[in-house]
Structures are given as structure tokens and as C-alpha cells.
Write a structure and sequence with these properties.
By secondary structure, the protein is an all-alpha fold. It has four helices and no strands. The longest helix is centred in the middle third of the chain and has 29 residues, at about 40-70. The radius of gyration is 15 Å and the shape is elongated.
């Protein structure tokens, strides 16, 4: 049996890492937790957080490319704010979910899962 409070804290840290660090480092916190933790729910949350953060970086790069292309600039003006909302709101939902239900890992919608 795993410690529920520790599971909640570490899982929330995986999803909340995106708020604490800059461009490259948010991925490092869940990677470190994935490598160190033995709790299967925490490992699943770490994998999901890594996937989410990589998706945010990928979507940001695509939108930046679109913004650099004059023809696609109007589309970038629409998608940029959507990415901003996606980036800030979904981790809050993830944190609230893992605090309320620590036994089940949170699954982000609208992402590609590499891990």
C-alpha cells in the first residue's frame, strides 16, 4: 500500500511543475519523479505531465511558425490565446483531480501521448 498523502503531493507536483519553471525545466521535474518514484499512480501522472508539457511546447512552436508566416498570422492570433488557456487551465484541473482522487492518474484531453 502506498502513502496517499505522498501520492497526492508528488502527483500534484508533476502537474504543477509547468507553473514553477521556465521553458525547458518543467519537463525535468516529472522526469526526475518518474525515475525516482516506485508508486504506479505517481509514475502514470509523471508520464502524463511529460506528455502534456511536450505537447504545449510543440503547439507553441507551431503557432510561432504560423505567426512568422504572414499568411497564417490571423490563425496564430486565434490559436495563441487558446494555447495560453490550454497551458494554464488544464494543469489546474489535473492538480484538483489528483488531489481528489489520488488512486487514478489524470488524463489530459487533446494531447498526443509519446510515453
Amino acid at each position: 500500500m502506498y502513502d496517499t498523502d505522498k501520492r497526492k503531493l508528488v502527483s500534484a507536483l508533476c502537474h504543477g511543475a509547468i507553473f514553477f519553471t521556465s521553458l525547458v525545466f518543467p519537463v525535468l521535474i516529472p522526469i526526475a519523479i518518474l525515475l525516482v518514484s516506485e508508486d504506479p499512480a505517481v509514475k502514470d501522472n509523471a508520464k502524463e505531465a511529460i506528455n502534456f508539457q511536450l505537447n504545449v511546447l510543440l503547439y507553441g512552436a507551431i503557432i510561432a511558425f504560423m505567426a512568422a508566416t504572414i499568411i497564417l498570422l490571423p490563425l496564430a492570433w486565434i490559436l495563441g490565446p487558446l494555447l495560453f488557456i490550454f497551458h494554464w487551465v488544464l494543469p489546474v484541473f489535473a492538480i484538483l483531480d489528483v488531489l481528489g482522487n489520488p488512486e487514478k492518474p489524470y488524463r489530459y484531453p487533446f494531447i498526443f501521448r509519446l510515453l
